[in-house]
Write a structure and sequence with these properties.
The protein has about 200 residues and is mainly alpha-helical. The chain contains 10 helices and no strands. The chain is elongated, with a radius of gyration of 19 Å.
Length: about 200
């Protein structure tokens, strides 16, 4: 009871749901971009007083970092899970790129990727954002490289698993960027299929 009373005293509405508020903020950033999302707009979407936003996250930048973490937990998890290993390398890479295309195009209000599109755009003028972008990019590439190694990638292959993982991640980011500009899933699917074919060729 004491915690509830203190929380309300600081301006947190009765029945406030932190995860719902964070989901709302994530969608605002995803749709409007970091610079385009005003604090007032975020507060309205989150049903959160400005003072509470600053108390909870330290400001807009802190909220953006929290939104990125929420996005990874909720949106990137199916992409990571698709790599398995659940089937053959072809099956898992096909599933991975299918999830990429799905995420990039599923909702017309939030096209592309919060990391590859929004964070990458904001990182140009912010060192902390650049570090976060590098960390998120590296995490995906490491996950891809590990899946390629699990496929018994040939030691004498012309392309190393790390380089091939970088190519796969770069292709996924390119798909996200093209989706952000309005390209539809049926146009992006052939790119995904070509990426799978190229990766399998390098593994031989």
């Amino acid at each position: 009871m004491a915690e509830t009373s203190i929380t309300r005293a600081r301006g947190r509405p009765k029945g406030f749901d932190d995860q719902s508020a964070l989901e709302a903020a994530t969608c605002v950033f995803w749709q409007a971009g970091y610079d385009g999302a005003s604090v007032d707009q975020l507060c309205r979407a989150m049903n959160m007083p400005r003072a509470t936003l600053y108390q909870s996250h330290g400001g807009k930048e802190g909220l953006f970092f929290a939104a990125i973490a929420h996005y990874v937990d909720t949106r990137m998890a199916p992409i990571a899970a698709a790599l398995g290993p659940d089937g053959s390398l072809r099956d898992d890479l096909t599933a991975f790129f299918a999830e990429v295309v799905k995420l990039a195009t599923a909702d017309p209000a939030t096209l592309g990727c919060l990391i590859s599109c929004v964070l990458a755009d904001a990182a140009g003028t912010n060192c902390a954002f650049r570090d976060e972008l590098d960390r998120r990019y590296s995490a995906l590439e490491a996950l891809l490289a590990e899946r390629l190694r699990q496929s018994r990638w040939r030691a004498d292959a012309s392309v190393s698993p790390d380089a091939a993982a970088g190519l796969a991640a770069a292709t996924a980011r390119g798909i996200m960027l093209r989706a952000r500009s309005g390209q539809q899933s049926q146009d992006l699917a052939p790119v995904a299929a070509a990426a799978v074919a190229a990766l399998l060729h390098f593994s031989d």
